[in-house]
Amino acid sequence: MARDERNTRIERLLGLLREDDTDKCDDVVPFGPREFTDPEIAARERELIFGRVPSIVAHSSELARPGAFLALQMPRNKVIVARQRDGGVKAFVNACRHRGAQLEDRPSGQCRIFSCPYHRWSYDLDGSLRTVTYDHTFGDIDKTASGLVELPVEERHGFVWIVDNAAASIDVAEWLGPEMDAILASYRMDELVGYRAEGFDEPVNWKIMQDAFLDGYHVKFAHPNTAGKIIHTNVMAVEDYGRHARFLSPRKSIDRFLEEDPADRDLGRHVTESHFLGPNSTLLRQPDHYQLLTFRPHPSDPARCRMEMRVMVPRLEDSGLDEAAWEKRWEKNWQILLDVLHAEDFPLLRANQEVLASADAGGMLLGRNEVINQVFHREVRRLTAPDEP
């Protein structure tokens, strides 16, 4: 993205900050607690959102070489994602086609084949059935029809995307749309490496979790000693692309330019540039790295979800740092993120979920100033709306 174009967006943000204002929607939007507790609503989301549209499950560097795999729980399926011998990626339901035993219980690893622990049937990296043990006694079967069930998967912009439905297809560029596809291409995240990724299973609906990481209204109240010291509250410049959005929040270091003309200075280091990547991710562009937060619903319980946090950074050889300094920088950054999650975000959001289960929890509101949250809820409603007859 050209510096001049980015600075123009940041200068608009400065204007909002000078006026103690923020981008706003047209109206306040009501919503209710059932959206976070109702099993029927949760089932529709699993089928009509995650069973239809692409969502990110990994950075490409997490599958660095052939035979690398990840095993994960998606909303509809247990899944294996594996790097192929030709460099591509495939995804499969994590179930043997003999009696349905789970093939991999490790969250990640390296292998040549997938071997069932129950009866030792084995499958190649491409999902094809390789071995039926004691096949001379088992009986005749069509091996070509008994490979692993494949799920739609695509690599784009340094990420691995999946549609969690074997009957679906995938087209990430179409899903992103031209604006967001171009934005992600400009970031060249395929040239970065995932420093670390970690997942957390939390007793919180996935939408409550996603809402928290799209929200610039809570910063100084929920994070008074961390982010609240660094980032202004309730000031955001938003670009709404429909399924996705980009939003800028000013860091307090930008305050010097409230009166001083920034001229040709690059103001990028004075903002946090965030992106809602529908349906379930927040991507944060920091001055020297990227953070990705993803939120997936539990396969049956509306009051549970899986959050995953990833940090993507310049490769050691591109960083200008020696190995010790590179490791120290990113380990410190990672630990700060973990501390904020566990000490501030998670306790607040767990209590939020518990309260919404109250028998008489009342209706709620999204304010005009909560633009990205309104975009998120609008897109959830759109994706789960009844199909036209």
Instruction: Count up the helices.
Output: 9
Question: What is the radius of gyration?
Answer: 23 Å
Shape: globular
In what order do the strands lie side by side in the largest sheet?
A: 13-19-18-17-16-15-14
Number of strands: 20
Mind describing the biggest β-sheet? Answer: 7 strands, antiparallel
Please characterize this protein's 3D structure.
By secondary structure, the chain is α+β, with helices and mostly antiparallel strands. The protein is built from 9 helices and 20 strands. It has helices at residues 3-18, 39-50, 135-138, 172-187, 206-212, 219-222, 316-319, 323-356, 371-384, and strands spanning 29-31, 55-59, 68-73, 78-83, 89-93, 108-110, 113-115, 122-124, 129-131, 150-151, 153-156, 159-162, 192-202, 237-240, 245-250, 271-277, 281-285, 290-297, 305-314, 364-366. The strands form 5 sheets. It has a 7-stranded antiparallel sheet with strand order 13-19-18-17-16-15-14. A 5-stranded antiparallel sheet has the order 6-3-4-5-10, with no helix packed on it. A hairpin with a 5-residue loop joins strand 4 and strand 5 (89-93). The chain starts with a helix and ends in a 5-residue tail after the last helix.
